[in-house]
Design goal:
The complex is a heterotrimer of chains A (392), B (309) and C (277). Chain A has 11 helices and 21 strands. With 392 residues, chain A is of the alpha+beta class. Classes of the chains: A alpha+beta (392), B mainly alpha (309), C mainly alpha (277).
Chain lengths: 392, 309, 277
């Protein structure tokens, strides 16, 4: 068990392209850290560099206080779980799980007892003599986990270990991994593209984009205080709504209507010298049916409901805002990643509001929505920086 | 920056120091390739260089002591000789005609193997027999088939006809033997290309109203282009060095000798190592030109050239 | 519907029969010849009227053929083993490892795959005479393994590429050195590919004619295809047709057995190296 420290870690490929730029990360002993981001953001490359499967171009990597930049994977004492599980098809479950110990020349009897123990923990006892081909997806996943834990390594590295499972099994395995990690207390670095997995599993989450770390923090902090447009749009489901706005005389003029700034926001925006044209970000829960939220303050806007999705606990209301959608490089990338670009629904700006299930909103009819300005974020369109909620 | 790396050769050259893993990998790569490379260099590169050297000598095996350097005169002798040009055009004819026929037949055969409803295994097994059989054996079978009073095929001809003793009939029979032997290989390469055509794309074309012929020409052929080019490249180069069939069927008599036969005869019948080597080098150049044309002009992917990780 | 299905099946059946006949008829013909006695050799029948093993007895009675058969088997086997071992090593490196010079290796083996053997016959003939391996087993084994190396490298690297890359990464993280990863993970998984390649290489060596007639001069290393071409018949006045047919059948048998047993693998092996997108 050990802490993992990355200092200015950079990966440059021979063709000059930068996969990972200057990553600084301090992972404490026993911590569960998630690397999350859209495909191509450098999260897997970072993990491979920690494992020793890819060379580090610049920077320093320390595991347990020792610089390991130039050590082969076998000398780093880390275990890895792959997206494809990478089980050896010619070996039984027992041989698969014992393989790392066999390579380490551990005594045969010790191997057996460790494998039996891991199999008991993972509930794999009855499958020990089967070949991977005769196991279900979930069982294979557990064997891959077992192969990692038998060695009692300094750290677990997991590369999208759940993305080959179906949705239901994924949720079950998620809790099992969480429980196992807590019990073993082994430092874990976990890569995923799924922000829900990131939010539910990690002690801390690292959001990456184009090889750069965007923000590091606890799930709650990333949600409430996203440092920039990208993190704001990436974390949270349904995603944050973004509308263009112009600042004038203490008002945000948006396609939804004029939103007056509260005192705190006004002060912050003045201090940070906000530009005239900004982007306003509102999470779906920043809206509420005005008739159900009479006592809370905040401006009221009127919108015509396009689609109403009633989930029982909540109701999602979709409506369109005047004017085209706001675009920045970061929002473009988010749209591409979420598939919004592929649905072709890019005409008018779609807004989602999460309302109390008691709402009387009807499709095709107008509804009055109260906006909680305390939950509104204002972003600088040119840099993407969050001007109102300065996360770390 | 890397505090633990020992100085390496690369560092000395000013390159980036490699990690232990990369160094190990690189060394292993060289180590694993070294024997194959050594063998290939020793048995082909060196001899072809030696062939170039021999081709610049007057070197008659009957009078080895009289060997002397004669510059390019062997090449002059070969290229001004009608024997070379006759053999050259015979080879070009055999290559072009047999590869063209093989392509059409092979495509048909590939479609049969791909589409047939039953006995797929039997058909594939049967088709592999011509590929696997020793060329000389097949050639004898054809020779006997066309020999008057012996063969079943010769009986179909007016009696007294001996097709293997006349230039054009013999050339066509050589084409036939070559086509029989190598069409299956062509068909298998094309079959692999066919497997790359998604079934759904064909169904989509069917729904879009494409006739079978249109589906073949507008959907299948474009998608199979890389496979077709590779198959053509392989077979053209292979056909260009045709030797076994001709040797058995006609021994190169009656104007049916290919370049390979010409080279062989000069070496082992005329025992003229200088001229024989010049022919060898010229054939090598022809093959190089064909390969270059295919790769550059048609963009045939050199097999195995792409190495992705 | 049923009628349409039947006619469909009939049509395919007909096409299949044509294909099978096309492929097998010349083989059948020479086999039939080999079982005919000299008297009926020229009767043109597709099935011998009087079956005789005389031709086989004839060829096995002389050392000319038995010696050639031993040469063929020995030379092809040794060349296959060496080519497959060297090919496996190189193919693994090509498919998996990063090292400078890889493109050179690929280019070189492609060049050799296209090489006209006749271009090598004259220099090899002279070199082998000088170093004294002309008309010996090594004199044929060396060119055979060289010319089958590209085939072996292509086929095997295609097989290696199909082994998931993650397995080797996993082995490395599990603590294996590259050599251990190769021995403990890759080799067991590549075994079927290696076997297939061995069959293809064997067929290649077994078939060669040009080197066999150029680089041998006596029975000591002459292989069967070359020996057949020099058959003279058991007596002076006899055409060697029956003997040639019998010998031809004998060396065709192993090929037929391979094809029958390993049809699927041979097809996979032949096409894997050649077609990759």
């Amino acid at each position: 068990m050990a802490e993992i420290v990355l200092e200015g870690v950079t990966k440059r490929y021979p063709d000059g392209s930068l996969a990972v730029r200057e990553v600084d990360l301090d992972i404490a002993d026993g911590e569960f850290v998630i690397l999350v981001g859209p495909s191509g953001c450098g999260k897997s490359t970072t993990l491979n560099m920690i494992a020793g499967l890819e060379d580090i171009t610049e920077g320093t990597l320390r595991i347990g206080g020792r610089v390991v930049n130039d050590l082969a994977p076998k000398e780093r004492d880390v275990a890895m779980v792959f997206q494809s599980y990478a089980l050896y098809p010619h070996m039984s479950v027992r041989e698969n799980m014992g393989f790392p110990l066999r390579l380490a020349k551990v005594d045969k009897a010790v191997i057996d007892s460790k494998v039996e123990e891991a199999a008991r923990v993972l509930d794999l006892g009855e499958f020990l003599d089967r070949k991977p081909a005769n196991l279900s997806g979930g069982q294979r996943q557990r064997v891959a986990m077992g192969r990692a834990i038998v060695r009692d390594p300094k750290a677990f590295l997991m590369d999208e270990p759940l993305s080959n499972l179906d949705a239901k099994l994924r949720v079950q395995m998620r809790t099992q991994i969480s429980r196992l990690q807590r019990r073993l207390g082994t430092t874990t670095v976990y890569v995923t593209h799924d922000q829900t997995e990131a939010m539910t599993l990690g002690d801390r989450v690292v959001v990456m984009r184009q090889g750069l770390v965007q923000q590091v923090g606890t799930p709650a902090r990333l949600y409430d205080m996203p440092r920039n447009l990208f993190v704001a749009g990436f974390i949270g489901s349904p995603a944050m709504n973004f509308v263009g706005a112009s600042l004038s005389g203490g008002l945000l003029r948006t396609p939804l209507g004029d939103l007056p700034l509260d005192d705190r926001m006004r002060r912050v925006l003045e201090r940070r010298d906000a530009p005239r044209e900004v982007i306003v970000g509102l999470r779906p829960e920043a809206f509420e049916d005005a008739s159900l939220a009479r006592e809370t303050g905040g401006p009221v806007v009127t919108a015509t409901v396009d689609v109403l999705e009633s989930l029982g606990s909540d109701a999602y209301v979709y409506f369109s805002a005047e004017g085209g959608p706001v675009t920045t490089a970061e929002l473009e990338e988010l749209a591409t990643d979420s598939g919004a670009r592929d649905t072709g629904a890019r005409g008018a700006q779609q807004i989602v509001a999460r309302l109390n299930a008691a709402t009387r909103a009807r499709e095709g009819a107008p509804v009055e929505l109260r906006v909680d300005m305390g939950k509104a974020h204002v972003f600088d369109p040119s840099t993407g920086t969050n001007l109102t909620h300065a996360g770390n | 920056m890397s505090t633990m790396a020992e100085p390496t050769k690369d560092e000395a050259k000013g390159g980036k120091p490699l990690s232990a893993g990369a160094r190990q990998e690189r060394r292993l790569g060289w180590l694993l390739c070294a024997p194959a490379v050594l063998v290939m260099v020793a048995v082909t590169a060196y001899p072809i260089g030696y062939a170039v050297y021999l081709s610049l000598q007057r070197y008659d095996l009957r009078f080895p002591a009289r060997a002397e350097f004669v510059g390019l005169s062997n090449y002059g002798a070969v290229l001004s000789s009608p024997f070379w040009w006759d053999a050259f055009w015979v080879t070009v004819f055999l290559t072009a005609v047999s590869v063209a026929i093989e392509l059409v037949l092979g495509m048909g055969l590939a479609l049969v193997m791909h589409r047939t409803l039953f006995a797929r295994g039997t058909v594939r097994t049967a088709v592999l027999v011509p590929y696997g059989i020793v060329t000389v054996v097949a050639a004898f079978s054809w020779q006997y088939a066309w020999t008057p009073e012996l063969g079943y095929l010769a009986e179909l001809l007016p009696s007294g006809d001996a097709p293997l003793t006349e230039q054009w009939p013999a050339l066509w029979l050589i084409v036939l033997a070559e086509v029989w032997k190598t069409t299956p290989f062509m068909a298998l390469l094309l079959l692999a290309g066919l497997a790359l055509v998604p079934e759904e794309t064909l169904k989509a074309a069917m729904v879009d109203g494409a006739t079978p012929w249109q589906r073949f020409t507008k959907v299948m052929l474009p998608l199979m282009k890389p496979a077709i080019l590779v198959a053509l490249l392989f077979r053209t180069l292979d056909a260009f060095r045709i030797f076994d069939n001709i040797y058995v069927l006609t021994s190169g008599a009656h104007g049916t000798g290919s370049l390979s036969i010409l080279g062989y005869d000069n070496l082992f019948t005329a025992l003229n190592l200088g001229i024989g080597s010049a022919i060898s080098v010229l054939i090598f150049l022809c093959v190089g030109i064909i390969a270059f044309t295919f790769v550059k002009l048609f963009g045939a992917a050199a097999p195995g050239a792409e190495v992705k990780r | 519907m049923a009628a349409a299905g039947t006619s469909h099946a009939t049509r395919w059946g007909f096409v299949n029969v044509v294909v099978v006949l096309y492929a097998l008829f010349p083989v059948w013909w020479i086999a039939a010849l080999s079982f005919k006695d000299p008297g009926t050799l020229t009767d043109g029948n597709y099935i011998p009227r009087d079956w005789t093993f005389e031709n086989y007895r004839g060829i096995f009675a002389t050392s000319e053929f038995t010696r050639a058969l031993i040469n063929s088997i020995g030379i092809a086997l040794i060349a296959t083993v060496i080519a497959v071992i060297l090919g496996t090593m190189a193919a693994y490196a090509v498919a998996r490892l990063r090292f400078p010079g890889k493109q050179l290796l690929i280019g070189m083996s492609l060049l050799i795959a296209m090489f006209p053997p006749i271009s090598l016959v004259s220099p090899l003939f002279n070199i082998e005479r000088i170093i004294g391996i002309f008309d010996t087993w090594p004199g044929l084994i060396i060119p055979y393994m060289t010319f089958s190396l590209p085939l072996a490298i292509y086929t095997l690297s295609a097989f290696f590429r199909e082994i998931p890359w993650d397995l080797e990464k996993a082995a490395k993280v599990d603590g294996a050195t590259p050599a251990q990863a190769f021995r403990l993970v890759i080799v067991p998984l590549a075994a079927p590919g290696v076997f297939t390649t061995a069959i293809l290489v064997f067929i290649f060596c077994w078939n060669d004619f040009l080197f066999a007639i150029s680089l041998t001069s006596t029975e000591s290393a002459r292989t069967v295809p070359a020996a057949i071409a020099f058959f003279t018949g058991s007596s002076q006045f006899q055409q060697p047709t029956g003997s040639i047919a019998a010998a031809a059948v004998v060396i065709t048998v192993p090929i037929i057995i391979f094809v029958l047993l390993f049809q699927r693998r041979i097809v996979a092996g032949l096409t894997s190296g050649a077609v990759k997108g």
